[in-house]
Amino acid sequence: MAFAIARVYDPPAPSDGYRVLVDRLWPRGLAKARAAVDEWAKEVAPSPGLRTEWHHAADRAGTFDAFAARYTAELDANPAARALLELGREHDRVTLLYGAKDEHLNHARVLLEWLAAHGASVTR
Prior knowledge:
Elements: E1 2-7, E2 18-21, H1 32-35, E3 39-40, H2 48-55, H3 60-76, H4 79-90, E4 93-98, H5 107-117, E5 121-122
Parallel strand pairs: 1-4, 1-5, 2-3, 2-4
Helix pairs in contact: 3-5
């Protein structure tokens, strides 16, 4: 099993394998057919309160570590995160899709690190 992340707005690639959207909200302006999503795992996304707090932060770069710590704690207690690990065992490759513009400071990166810490092979 290998996990990777990609921006949902980028064209799908044959190497993506099983494509899972990990955002709580559907990406703005994106048709479902164009997204080529195999599964929408919105339950694994940050909680609504944490997501709202993060999106309204004046300095996202300065608060990313705090956000990552809180989101990691949510993942530790989230059965959907464990289900995602199991999904990785069912597929050779799983690409986690996110809609954020920043490819470095986003919840999908934190999720990828959490998966790696729990034994999953990841591509960074």
